Automatic annotation (TrEMBL):
<dbReference type="GO" id="GO:0004850">
    <property type="term" value="F:uridine phosphorylase activity"/>
</dbReference>
<keyword id="KW-0808">Transferase</keyword>
<dbReference type="GO" id="GO:0009164">
    <property type="term" value="P:nucleoside catabolic process"/>
</dbReference>
<keyword id="KW-0328">Glycosyltransferase</keyword>
<comment type="similarity">
    <text>Belongs to the PNP/UDP phosphorylase family.</text>
</comment>
<dbReference type="InterPro" id="IPR018016">
    <property type="entry name" value="Nucleoside_phosphorylase_CS"/>
</dbReference>
<feature type="domain" description="Nucleoside phosphorylase">
    <location>
        <begin position="28"/>
        <end position="223"/>
    </location>
</feature>
<dbReference type="Pfam" id="PF01048">
    <property type="entry name" value="PNP_UDP_1"/>
</dbReference>
<dbReference type="InterPro" id="IPR000845">
    <property type="entry name" value="Nucleoside_phosphorylase_d"/>
</dbReference>
<dbReference type="InterPro" id="IPR035994">
    <property type="entry name" value="Nucleoside_phosphorylase_sf"/>
</dbReference>
<dbReference type="GO" id="GO:0005829">
    <property type="term" value="C:cytosol"/>
</dbReference>
<protein>
    <recommendedName>
        <fullName>Uridine phosphorylase</fullName>
        <ecNumber>2.4.2.3</ecNumber>
    </recommendedName>
</protein>
């Protein structure tokens, strides 16, 4: 049995197997969109941009925002690839993570393009169950969450869009979100649903790292308001606002 691999100690100081990044190639704070095609949206805010790596769903670029070295890495969709990205980014020096995703609203009054700041996640995923007890909370770093509320409000000031904060759900199965589940989440007061934050929060807590999330609302599952069709411009505006809020938090907290 002595030949069994211990993944907690394998490849620690090397180029990482899935994200293709070596220690020294990135900074201490990473913005995490789901989609690799959204990593360049982060880069639009940065100076001295470098394309660092792109392997599988994990694309990484770095650059400077107001003098701070920022890393942007895509997680892909769902908790399994998100947990891998957080684990491997931590091994190459990242200590703080801010997910900048899209998410569907579960309460009336939230519209596509609005910003949603996470205060915690209902862990409806299989990945975190492999890491911890079912009662373990999936919660952001409190200072990051508070800062995201403030920076999101500042970024959205004067616009027609709003900022909401609350508990989100993290689901594994986009197409298994049936009407009963959506109604139950809404009745529980859950603000929005996405597919990555529980893994980011749990892995971050277990490894002594910090994490937070600000998403753009892509659709509202209880009002039927969706981005399909002419609302897409609003989602892009929401993504850009969420990225700016995350960058301002990175600067404000010196992440
Ligand atoms: O747009 P991203 O950040 O990928 O986030 C949301 O979009 C995907 C589903 O459409 C899931 O990954 C969900 O969390
Ligand atoms: O889980 C998710 C994420 C985004 N949009 C949805 O409808 N569900």
């Amino acid at each position: 049995m002595s030949d069994i691999v211990d993944k907690s100690s394998v490849g620690l100081d090397a180029r990482q197997y899935h994200i293709d990044i070596a220690p020294g190639e990135v900074g201490t704070v990473a913005l995490l969109p789901g989609d690799p095609f959204r990593v360049p949206f982060v880069a639009e805010f940065l100076d001295h941009v470098k394309d660092v790596a792109h392997k599988r769903e994990h694309r990484t670029m770095t650059g400077y925002y107001k003098g701070r070295l920022i890393t942007a890495t895509s997680t892909g969709m769902g908790c399994p690839s998100t947990a891998i990205a957080v684990e491997e980014l931590a091994r190459v020096g990242v200590t703080s993570f801010i997910r900048v995703g899209s998410s569907a609203a579960l309460q009336p009054g939230v519209e596509p393009g609005d910003l949603l700041v996470s205060e915690g996640s209902l862990r409806n995923d299989g990945t975190t169950a492999a890491y911890v007890h079912h009662g373990y909370p999936a919660i952001p770093d409190l200072a990051i969450a508070q800062s995201l509320k403030e920076t999101a409000a500042a970024v959205m000031a004067g616009s027609e869009r709003s900022v909401f904060s609350g508990i989100n759900a993290t689901d594994d199965a986009f197409y298994a979100e049936g009407p009963e589940w959506i109604a139950e989440l809404s009745r529980m007061g859950i603000l929005n649903v996405e597919m990555e934050s529980s893994a980011m929060y749990v892995v971050a807590r277990l490894r002594g790292l910090r994490a937070g999330m600000v998403c753009a609302c892509s659709s509202n599952l209880v009002t039927g308001d969706s981005v399909y069709g002419d609302k897409n411009a609003r989602l892009k505006e929401g993504w850009m606002a969420s990225i700016e809020a995350a960058l301002e938090t990175a600067v404000a907290l010196e992440l």
